[in-house]
Amino acid sequence: xxxxxxxxxxxxxxxxxxxxxxxxxxxxxxxxxxxxxxxxxxxxxxxxxxxxxxxxxxxxxxxxxxxxxxxxxxxxxxxxxxxxxxxxxxxxxxxxxxxxxxxxxxxxxxxxxxxxxxxxxxxxxxxxxxxxxxxxxxxxxxxxxxxxxxxxxxxxxxxxxxxxxxxxxxxxxxxxxxxxxxxxxxxxxxxxxxxxxxxxxxxxxxxxxxxxxxxxxxxxxxxxxxxxxxxxxxxxxxxxxxxxxxxxxxxxxxxxxxxxxxxxxxxxxxxxxxxxxxxxxxxxxxxxxxxxxxxxxxxxxxxxxxxxxxxxxxxxxxxxxxxxxxxxxxxxxxxxxxxxxxxxxxxxxxxxxxxxxxxx
Length: 360
Ligand code: ATP
Known about the structure:
This protein has helices at 42-50, 92-102, 107-120, 136-148, 166-183, 194-200, 218-223, 228-233; strands spanning 4-13, 16-26, 31-35, 57-62, 65-66, 77-80, 154-158, 186-191, 203-208, 211-216, 238-247, 251-256, 260-265, 275-280, 286-288, 298-310, 314-321, 326-332, 347-353, 358-359. By secondary structure, the protein is α+β, with helices and mostly antiparallel strands.
C-alpha cells in the first residue's frame, strides 16, 4: 500500500472550489511535487495533508490510517514554509530542539537528535547563532532541520526556495536532493517553478484550477505533455495547429496548413480529420541552411530566421514557417569560434523526427 493516499478530495471556500476531486497516491521515499500556477490549489491540498484545512469530501490516508480526525500536531507530518518561520529569540540549536521539547523527550536524546539534524544540513558550526545572524539559505536549512529532526513520515515543503536568489536556489536544490536521499523521508513539495519541479522530483502532479492535469515522472511530463495546458506550462513548447490526414499502424500523417505534411506517433482514439496541435520542444528541431534528407523518419520544412536570442550557452532562433507561424528552435553554442550560426532573415531548413513531437 502507498504511504499516502489522497482519495477524491474536494475543498471549497464558499462557492469557490479550490481542490476539485483530486485522487493520487505517494510511495514511501518519494520526492513528489505538486506543480501549478498561482491559485491552482496546490497549497490548499498541502494544508489538508498537514491538517490545517479539512476536506469537504474525500479521504486522506497516511500509513493506512484515515487522517480525518487527527489534528495537525498528532500527524507524523511536518511543514517547511517559504518564510522559514523560525523563532527569532532562539539559537539555531534551540529552534531545532523546539519540537522535541514539546514532545517532552529526554534532554540527552534531544541533544543527540539536534546534533544529527545539524549534520544533515551541514550547519554544525552555526548551532549557537541566532536566525538574524544567518543568510537566507542557512535559515531555510535550519527550518528544514527543525522539520526533519523527529523524522516525520511526510515532509511538506511549500515553495521553500522562492525567497532565495537564482544562484542560491540552484545550490539549495542540489542540497535538497542529497538530503532527501540521505534521510529517506517522503517529500511533498509545492512549487510554481517548472524547472525546479523537473530537477527535483521523482514524480510530478501538474495542477490547474483545482484538478490534476497530468501525473508522471519528469521526463514523461516534459516530453509527452497530455494536453495544451501542460505543454504550455512546462518549458518552452511549440504548438503547431494540424489536422490528421492518414492513420497507420504506429504513425499518422498530419497536415500543418500552409506548411506541409508531417508525421507523428499514432494517438489512440483519434480519427482522420481530427484537428489538434503538434507539440514540439525547441531542442528537438534540427536547423541548418540545408539538412541531409537521408532519414526517412524525418520531415523537412523551409523557414526564415525571424529573431535570434543569444543566451551564452545556447542561441534561440525564432523561425517563421511558410504559413507565418513562428517556431522556437535552439542550438548549443559549442563551436568556440562562433557565437551564432544564423542571422535575422536567413533562409533555413528545419527537420524533426516523427517521434520528436506529440499530437495533442
Ligand atoms: P499560490 O502559489 O499563489 O499560493 P496555490 O496554487 O497554492 O497558489 P491556493 O493557495 O491553494 O493556491 O489557493 C487556491 C485558491 O483558493 C485561490 O484562488 C485562493 O484565493 C483560494 N483560497 C485559498 N485559501 C482560501 C481561504 N482561506 N478562503 C478563501 N479562498 C481561499
